[in-house]
Amino acid sequence: MKIIIVGAGAVGYNIASRLALESKNVVVVDVDAHATRKIAEDLDVKVVTGSGSNPDTLREAGVVEADILLAVTDSDEINIVSCLIANQISPMTRKLVRLRNEGFIPFHASLKNEPPHIDNIINPEAEVVKTIRKLMTIPGAVDKGEFVNGRVKYVGIRLSETSPIAGMELSDFHHIFGHERPLLAAIIRNNKVIVPRGKDRSMAGDLIYFVCDTEKLEKTLELLGVTVRPVKKVLIVGGGRIGFKLSQSLEQDNIQVKIVESSIDRCNDLSMKMAKTVVLHGDGGDQKLFMEENISQMDAVVTVTNDDETNILVSLLAKNMGVDNTITRISKASYYPLLSTIGIEKVVSPRISAVSSILQDIRQGNVISDISIYGEQGEFIEAVALASSTITKGPIKDISFPKGTLLVCIIRQDEIIIPTGESRVEAGDRIILFAILAAVKKLEKMLTVKLGFF
C-alpha cells in the first residue's frame, strides 16, 4: 500500500511514524524543508519538499500510484486543493482530509459527493468533544470508547487499594464473577502496556482496560468498585474551538456550563454565540476566581486551552480544591508517561483523535474501527471474520495470535460474547482485538495472509 501524507506537522509526523513501523510505502510532502528533513532523518519514509497543492509536487510524490492521500496540513484550504489536484491527476486514489474550520461543515457533503470527491473528512476537535462527553459520565474512568454502534464499551480505570479485583489472578475472575466477569484487554503498569494472561494479577495502582456489553456497564463498574453519577455542572477552562463545541454539546443536554477565557474579545464573541453558558473573563490558574465560582461544587472541570502546561496546572489546582473529575487536553506526546505520576489521568488530544480516525480509514477491507489508547501504545481493532479466516477453524485456544494481541469480544447478530478459550468465531462475526503497538505489524500481516481482513 502506498500512502502520500501532505503535511509534516504533528499529525503528519505521527501517522508517518505509525505506518512506517507497519512497513507501509509512505511519502511525506511538505513545503518546509526543515520539517521534511527531520522526518527523513527520523523515519524510514520518502520525503518530497514542496507544496501539496502543486500538481508537479504530487506527481513527484507518486500520486498516480498512491492508494491513499492524506491531507493534514494546518491549512484547510491547502488540504482541499491538494485533494482537488489529486482527484484530477489520479481519480482512483482515496482522499482523506483534515478540516478544522467550522465554516466548511455545511459543505462536507458536497466535498464528498462532488469534486474533489473526498472520501472522509476528519474534524479532530469534534472527535475530542465526543471523547470528553464519554469521560464525564464515569468519574473514575481514565478512558472510554465504544464499538458496534455503541453496543460494546471499553473503559480504562485506575485500580484502588479497595478494588475487589486488586491482587486477583485473572483466571479467578470466571469463578468469582461468572458470566458477568469483566474481560481485561490491557494492564498498564509502570508506563508499560501488558496484554494479560490467566496467571497475571491485577494490582492496586494499575490502569486497566476492560471490555463489556454496554447494557452491563454499570454492573461491571460496580464489580470493580466504581460508581457512576450524573454530571450537572461543568467548568471549562479555554474558550477556543474545543471549549466552544463542548459547551454547545453540554447546553443541549441542559447541563450548567461556565467557560473561563483569558481573551476579552473571545469572551464577547462567546457571549454572543452561547444561549445559557456563563462566560467568565479571567485566568484559568486564578485560585481566587475558582473559589468565587465554587469550583468544588463542579461535577467536572475540563481544561482545553492551547497551552499544555496551563492545562496541567489548572487541572492540578482543581484537584487540589476538591474536584475529582478533571479532563485535560494534552498535545505533546512526551508528557504522557509523566502525567499519571502527578495525578493527571483523564487526557484528551486532538492529534490522537485525528490519528485514530485516519488509521480507521487506512485499515482496509473488513476493519470497521481502529482506536488508539494510552498515548498510542496500544490499539483496539474492530473487524469482521470471513469464512476463509483461520480464526473460524477452531476454538480460540487453538488459534495462534501474535504475542501482545488478544481477542476481547465476539459480536454475533444480537449476541455479545466475552470469549473464553473454548469460544469459537464464526464467519460474519464482528470481532474486537487488542494489540500493543509492537504487535500491530505482525497482527496486520496475520490478518492479511490468514484472515483476509486487509
Adjacency order of strands in the biggest sheet: 3-2-1-4-5-6
- Alpha-carbon Rg, integer: 23 Å
Quickly give the structural class: alpha/beta
| Number of individual domains | 4
- How many angstroms separate the termini? 11 Å
CATH fold field value of the largest domain: Rossmann fold
Work out the helix count.
15
Strand content of the residues, in percent? 25-35%
What top-tier CATH class of the largest domain fits best? Alpha Beta
Overall helicity: 25-40%
Main sheet record = 6 strands, parallel
Overall average residue pLDDT: 89
Poorly predicted segments:
449-454
CATH architecture of the largest domain: 3-Layer(aba) Sandwich
Shape: globular
Write out the CATH superfamily name of the largest domain.
Answer: NAD(P)-binding Rossmann-like Domain
Protein name: Trk system potassium uptake protein TrkA
Keywords: Ion transport, NAD, Potassium, Potassium transport, Transport
GO molecular function, one term: potassium ion transmembrane transporter activity
Organism: Desulfobacter postgatei 2ac9
